[in-house]
């Protein structure tokens, strides 16, 4: 079987290239761990707020908000100076019952955090005022009642206790710490597979072409399809290992919850890897050197990230959204997200799998035909 | 010629504006070594690529074993050695040989024996387990030749096989080539080494896109009235002696 012989040869070459191998397996893990830190850190922006003439109760309510520090100032001028010196992120100033807020606004996320914290504090404050008033009314009522000797005795405390509603949060997927990272993880996983398989296989075929081994190979009775399938087998095997490793790292090291079947995730990524391989081989025929191959990264790979679903597609203009339909990572990302976060079985992912298969078949045929450039039969 | 191994008829090849081959006609019959000589850039490698079907001719036909090229199945009976080494550098010599033997479709049973034989011909037996990246230029050339010899093909097409090979080994290689010829198989060989051209049975002189002479070395020398093939070459090129 020539296909197997080509597969073994490609795998052997890959296994001996320790650096490329390390890049393929360690770089995604490194980046994932970094991203995990980056995104979990951004969820707790610390902000400091200066207050001018704000009631003590509101001030303490605001200070009780997590990641918010409050400092009182005697006048606005002093607070403004602190703001300009970058010691404060915002100033809250009270005039009678109105509040004016001044934001440094150098960091939008801090501004949002202050806005949120202030609104929450305000409503908490209003609530406790209400509670106090209510308590006052209740005690007045009780006094009144005690003055009426024939009044029926009511069960005590019921009214006074039921004032603060208790809120309990339920999460369908993950927990309170589930953030942006968990959302983009299934897509990122696909991107890593795509990126490395695309680049390495493209380079491999390029080298085969420029070193003349492709010519030599085509001077034997090997079929063009056997070459393409041999490459597919070897890179398919590699992609399976890469995906398993990435999935294990994300589950065990980063604690991401996977609801669905892991084997499905591996299968989806395998499919994506084959698409990436076929794409890499196709693109490599338009490059004459490794550097020219690298030039396809900003043109062909980076845009894929934009349309992969990492940035919500709903918010894009219609025609821009249309581009996403020809982005393989979108389909694999969509399928992987559904499997990981909702445990959707493969049978319900027909569209995604079908589209990936369509990409695969088209690109593979293009490659087999494209090899005609080097041998006409 | 009905029974010729290679038959090139009216081959024309252009690369863009440049017409490299104008009208190439010659044939290689069974059991002969044909040497293709000509100055650098004359189009020797191009002739070989057209014969193998690796490039498309603009007009004319190349026939091998009576069948028009390109023809994939026929490639199993042709041993081709390109001008560049074209080896997998991260694999050992042995692994390169095994890989190409499998590509040529050699039966598994005779694989090891065939590899041992060709390795001995090019004197590489001791270095087979070394990675090719650690080979010298001449060793790579020899491995490349060994790959072409694999499977005892009926036709050998060798593009400058003896570049970088020392005289003793060159003799050994020619002894092997003569043995192949004596067994009734055919060889088309290009060379820059003129005394090597003397060893060929017939020599085709490629100049200006045409085969300007195609004859035995002895007759060529008579025709040009000189003592060596080198002189024939120079005279044909118009160089003052
Ligand atoms: N792929 C190509 N594209 C454009 N021009 C080419 C191509 N291949 C060969 N040529 C041109 O065709 C001519 C003949 O090239 P070829 O390689 O056949 O020469 P050669 O006789 O084998 O030379 P040498 O003895 O140096 O190997 C050269 O002028 C070369 O520039
Ligand atoms: Mg040449």
TrEMBL record, chain A:
The keyword Electron transport does not apply. The keyword Magnesium does not apply. It is found in: Cell membrane. It is a multi-pass membrane protein. It comes from the Bacteria. Keywords: Cell membrane, Membrane, Transmembrane, Transmembrane helix, Transport. PROSITE patterns: ABC_TM2. Its main location: membrane. The chain crosses the membrane at residues 21-39, 184-206, 227-255, 261-284, 296-313, 353-371. Residues 148-374 form the ABC transmembrane type-2 domain. Belongs to the ABC-2 integral membrane protein family. This is ABC transporter permease. It comes from Loigolactobacillus zhaoyuanensis.
From TrEMBL, chain B:
CDD domains: ABC_subfamily_A. The keyword Glycosyltransferase does not apply. Residues 6-233 form the ABC transporter domain. GO terms for molecular function: ATP binding. Keywords: ATP-binding, Nucleotide-binding. PROSITE patterns: ABC_TRANSPORTER_1, ABC_TRANSPORTER_2. Transmembrane segments: none annotated. The keyword Nucleotide-binding applies. SMART domains: AAA. Pfam families: ABC_tran. InterPro entries: AAA+_ATPase, ABC_transporter-like_ATP-bd, ABC_transporter-like_CS, P-loop_NTPase. This is ABC transporter ATP-binding protein.
């Amino acid at each position: 079987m020539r296909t197997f012989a080509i597969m073994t040869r490609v795998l052997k070459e890959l296994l001996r290239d320790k650096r490329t191998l390390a890049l393929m397996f360690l770089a995604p893990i490194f980046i994932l761990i970094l991203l995990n830190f980056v995104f979990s850190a951004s969820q707790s922006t610390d902000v400091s707020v200066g207050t001018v003439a704000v009631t003590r109760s509101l001030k303490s309510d605001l200070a009780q908000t997590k990641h918010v520090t409050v400092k009182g100032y005697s006048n606005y001028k002093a607070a403004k100076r602190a703001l300009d010196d970058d010691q404060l992120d915002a100033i809250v100033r009270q005039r009678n019952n109105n509040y004016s807020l001044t934001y440094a606004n150098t960091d939008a996320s801090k501004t949002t955090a202050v806005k949120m914290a202030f609104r929450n504090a305000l409503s908490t404050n209003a609530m406790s005022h209400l509670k106090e008033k209510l308590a006052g009314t209740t005690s007045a009522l009780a006094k009144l009642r005690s003055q009426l000797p024939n009044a029926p005795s009511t069960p005590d405390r019921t009214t006074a206790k039921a004032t603060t509603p208790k809120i309990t949060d339920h999460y369908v997927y993950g927990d309170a710490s589930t953030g942006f990272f968990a959302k983009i993880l299934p897509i990122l996983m696909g991107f890593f597979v795509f990126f490395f398989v695309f680049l390495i296989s493209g380079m491999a075929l390029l080298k085969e072409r420029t070193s003349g081994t492709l010519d030599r190979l085509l001077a034997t009775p090997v079929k063009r399809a056997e070459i393409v399938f041999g490459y597919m087998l070897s890179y398919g095997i590699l992609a399976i290992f890469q995906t398993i490793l990435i999935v294990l790292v994300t589950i065990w090291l980063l604690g991401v919850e996977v609801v669905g079947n892991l084997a499905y995730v591996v299968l989806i990524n395998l499919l994506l890897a084959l698409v990436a391989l076929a794409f890499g081989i196709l693109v490599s025929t338009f490059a004459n050197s490794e550097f020219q191959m690298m030039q396809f990264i900003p043109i062909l790979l980076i845009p894929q990230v934009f349309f992969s679903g990492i940035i919500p597609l709903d918010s894009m203009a219609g025609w821009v959204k249309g581009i996403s339909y020809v982005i393989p990572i979108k389909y694999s990302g969509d399928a992987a997200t559904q499997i990981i976060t909702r445990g959707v079985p493969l049978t319900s992912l027909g569209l995604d799998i079908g589209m990936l298969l369509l990409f695969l078949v088209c690109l593979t045929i293009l490659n087999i035909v494209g090899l005609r450039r080097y041998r006409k039969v | 010629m009905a029974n010729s191994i290679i038959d090139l008829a009216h081959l024309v090849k252009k690369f863009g504006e440049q017409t490299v081959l104008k009208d190439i006609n010659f044939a290689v019959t069974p059991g002969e070594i044909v040497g293709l000589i000509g100055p650098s850039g004359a189009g020797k490698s191009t002739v070989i690529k057209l014969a193998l079907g690796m490039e498309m001719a603009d007009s004319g036909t190349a026939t091998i074993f009576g069948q028009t090229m390109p023809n994939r199945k026929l490639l199993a009976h042709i041993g081709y050695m390109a001008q560049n080494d074209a080896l997998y550098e991260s694999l050992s010599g042995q692994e390169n040989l095994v890989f190409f033997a499998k590509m040529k479709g050699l039966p598994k049973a005779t694989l090891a024996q065939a590899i041992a034989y060709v390795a001995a011909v090019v004197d590489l037996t001791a270095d087979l387990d070394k990675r090719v990246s650690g080979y010298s230029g001449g060793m790579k050339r020899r491995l490349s030749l060994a790959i072409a010899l694999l499977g005892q093909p009926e036709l050998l097409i060798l593009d400058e096989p003896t570049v970088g090979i020392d005289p003793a080994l060159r003799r050994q290689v020619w002894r092997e080539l003569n043995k192949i010829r004596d067994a009734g198989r055919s060889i088309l060989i290009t060379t820059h080494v003129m005394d090597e051209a003397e060893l060929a049975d017939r020599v085709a002189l490629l100049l200006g896109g045409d085969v300007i002479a195609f004859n035995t070395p002895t007759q060529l020398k008579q025709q040009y009235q000189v003592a060596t093939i080198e002189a024939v070459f120079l005279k044909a090129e118009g160089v003052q002696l």
